[in-house]
Amino acid sequence: MAPKDYVSRGKSQTPPPKETPPLPWVRILVTTALISGFGYFLWSIKGSAPETDSKQIIEPKEKTDPLPKVPKEKWDFIDALDHQDIEVDVPEPAEPKDTRPYKMQCGSFRLKSQAEEMKAKLALVGLEANVKGTEGKNGLWYRVAVGPIETKREAEAQKHRARKLGIPTCQIWRWN
Questions:
Q1: What residues does 133 pair with on adjacent strands?
Q2: Which of 91, 122, 134, 167 gives the lowest tally of CB atoms within 10 Å of its CB?
Q3: Rg (alpha carbons) of the chain, rounded to whole number
Q4: What's the pLDDT tens digit per position in 19-50?
């Protein structure tokens, strides 16, 4: 490929700068005239309001009938609640449905070397994994599983630790 000649390329075509529009003198004059006219109008009506005598004192009228005194309220429900016994049925605490521990399977491989490699990656995170060979319809498979784990919360925490390392394939199941 031949080298490119940047010298004969020439200057880039830049568009000419846009012209700014002139000031709108008509709008400025009309606005100034309106504001001046409104100011003159306010100045001209300044003293034309009728004067009111604010010194007149209005005498209060005498009260003819005083209000009756408020009768004391009698609350009957307070006495009724004191003499009432309420029985509450407390259900027995429900036992957990399934007390089996959890396991987390992170892979299933045809080759034992791949399973051992996954086990080593999990060991870097601090998870102790087991490699178990199982015979299925498709032949021999090597499962990489972590467990037993007592609670679902612990299992989820270990799953997130494995995901941070780059192993997103882990699944949590009940221990068989």
A1: 142
A2: 91
A3: 46
A4: 888 888 999 999 999 999 999 999 999 877 77
